[in-house]
Amino acid sequence: MTRILLPLATFAAALALGGCVGTIGSVVTAPVKAVGKVADWTTTSQDEADRNRGRKLREREERLGKLARERARYSPKCDAGDRDACDRVARIDAEIATLGDQPI
Questions:
Q1: Does 2 reside within a domain?
Q2: Is residue 52 part of a domain?
Q3: Which of 17, 27, 72, 103 has a 20 to 30 A CA-CA distance from 54?
Q4: d(Cα 53, Cα 73) in Å, to the nearest integer?
Q5: What is the pLDDT of residues 47-86, one digit of tens each?
Q6: Biggest alpha carbon distance in the chain?
Q7: What is the tens place of the pLDDT at every residue in 4-27?
C-alpha cells in the first residue's frame, strides 16, 4: 500500500507546488523589473532630449521674432523723438541680448 501512496503523494505534491514555484519566480524577478521601470522613468532618452531641445529652440526663435517685430514697430517712433518708444526699444534690445546669451 505504501508503494502506491508514495508515488501518488509525490505526484499530488508536484501539482500543488507547481503554482508556488511560478509565483516564487515572479516574486524574485519583480524587484528587478521595478528597478528597470524606475530607470526608464528617471532617465531621458536621446530622442526625448532632442525633442525638448528642438522645442526650446522653436520657442526661443518665436520669442525673438516677436521682439524683432515689436522693435520694428517702435523704432520709427523713437527716431521721431518719442521718449517712451525709445525706452521700449531699449528694453526690447536688452531682452534680445539676454535671450541671445542664454544657453539652450
A1: yes
A2: no
A3: 72
A4: 30
A5: 888 999 999 999 999 999 999 999 999 999 999 999 999 9
A6: 116
A7: 666 666 666 666 666 555 565 565
